[in-house]
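Researcher: Here's the sequence for the chain we discussed earlier.
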Amino acid sequence: MPDSDKLAIAAHLHVLLRRKTGRVTDTEWMAANADYAQEIVRFARLRAVENNAPELAEWADRLDHALQATPPAAPRRPLLDVATQAVRQRMAPPEPPPEVPRYVGGIR
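Model: Thanks. This is the structure I predict for it:
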């Protein structure tokens, strides 16, 4: 699912949560971070039951479905490892030039 769709769902859920529960959320972070979004989904479903607000549960389900449709991100390498590797490559001694056969005798 495109990020713009996840952001739209997150924004709609944000508005509903604000109106029904007074809870303020971060829509961009909700669309980008799956852990935060899952916690908001859990909170919205809980409040939907407590406040008898079925629209909260509906939009929480939509966000949950959008998160399920998104493939997991590839694991990222720590920046320190990348920088260390680059520095090591720069500091490695240069390779010696290849040996060229030389004229052994003098010029006559």
